[in-house]
Specification:
about 350 residues; Beta-Lactamase; elongated; alpha+beta; Heat Shock Protein 90
């Protein structure tokens, strides 16, 4: 009886084990139609198992740029592995991967194969995240050293604004001093929250769209004619637990970097998506929200992409070199990460935040 129970439970257990793997697995029949995908493959091809099963695997690939994987799948009963192959999908996305094809005709119907895909970018991502941790440590050390120097002039500005306010007799002028005092208080709170050794992120349930729309209003007010902001939002994204003020500061720093990268008139796109089975550091999160901020500016200077999150590193004459390190520190404190892709056609910062805490 116990043996029978084990046999019944084994398929469900097997599927859970396959879904936990970091490699993408697809089972293809003799016509190369998909009969099974694991959760990692769903994430790789950005489709659910329900929409993938039954489709010919070649239909997922670009018909413009040939991938060697399609030719190798046409071969029968040959087990093979190819390293560092370029795979271009039908949606235009390309990635470098190692893949293996295992004939399974002895286990199932004739001509069926198991396809395993291991994107090389995962290893590069682990290396980048380890390097990011070193960058964050350097940022923290610099920030703590600057904290005292920042707070002192802010206190002086606030005091001067208060003295000036007492001497003014016009309400419209007093409004300006109130703005100065309010902004100084906000900056002092931000510095204290970021640099205090014992301060924690103040989590609350927030809507990521409300944060992005707040950024939109700020940029539109500052650059109403020069910068056009496009929004491509996934309405199904739930609320998440985060510090609203800190996230606003992080996103604002990244968007300002995008604005500075555009020399004349240009566009910035806010895009939100749900990600599944995403690993950040040593933790695999079942659900994350990914926010892509893309500009059509001049791109990051060659050789700078690996160090752009270090403090005081910038290719902009008007930049301080602190905006992106501060953004990275804030996102890291939320358990997330920032990825960068840049070319002469523009730059995309992808901010990834875990959703499971919500």
């Amino acid at each position: 009886m116990q043996a029978n129970l084990k046999q019944i439970a084994m398929p469900d257990l097997s599927y859970r084990i396959l879904d936990a793997l970091k490699t993408s697995l697809l089972y293809l029949d003799h016509e190369r139609r998909i009969t099974y995908v694991n959760a990692t493959a769903e994430a790789l091809f950005e489709n659910s198992a329900g929409s993938l099963i039954g489709r010919p695997f070649p239909s997922l690939l670009s018909q413009v740029e040939a991938s060697t994987i399609a030719d190798k799948l046409a071969l029968d009963s040959i087990a093979l592995t190819e390293h560092e192959a370029v795979i271009t999908l039908a949606n235009g996305k390309s990635f470098v991967a190692d893949y293996s094809i295992f004939p399974c005709s002895e286990l199932a119907g004739e001509g069926e194969v198991l396809l395993e895909i291991r994107p090389a970018e995962h290893q590069a991502q682990f290396a980048r995240e380890e390097f990011n941790q070193l960058q964050q440590h350097a940022t923290q050390q610099l920030a703590r050293g600057l904290a005292h120097e920042i707070n002192n002039p802010l206190g002086g500005i606030r005091g001067a604004a208060q003295l000036l306010q007492r001497e003014l007799d016009r309400p419209d002028w007093i409004e300006y001093t109130e703005v100065i005092i309010s902004e100084v208080d906000r900056l002092q709170n931000l510095v204290n929250n970021m640099l205090g050794p014992n301060n924690r992120v103040q989590h609350q349930l927030i809507n990521i769209y409300e944060v992005l729309e707040h950024i939109h209003k700020i940029i539109h007010a500052a650059e109403p004619e020069r910068i056009e902001i496009l929004r491509d939002y996934d309405p199904s994204i739930p609320s998440l637990m985060a510090d609203r003020d800190l996230l606003i500061q992080a996103f604002l720093n990244i968007v300002r970097n995008a604005v500075q990268a555009i020399d004349d008139r240009g566009k910035i796109t806010f895009k939100t998506r749900i990600g599944r089975k995403v690993t950040i550091g040593q933790i695999t999160h079942p659900l994350v929200v990914q926010v892509d901020i893309t500009d059509n500016g001049r791109g990051v200077a060659p050789g700078l992409s690996e160090t752009i999150f270090l403090p005081m590193i910038t290719d902009k004459a008007e930049g301080s070199g602190l905006g992106l390190p501060i953004a990275q520190e804030i996102i890291s404190r939320h358990g997330g990460t920032i990825n960068l892709q840049s070319s002469t056609a523009g730059t995309t910062f992808s901010i990834i935040l875990p959703l499971e805490q919500a």
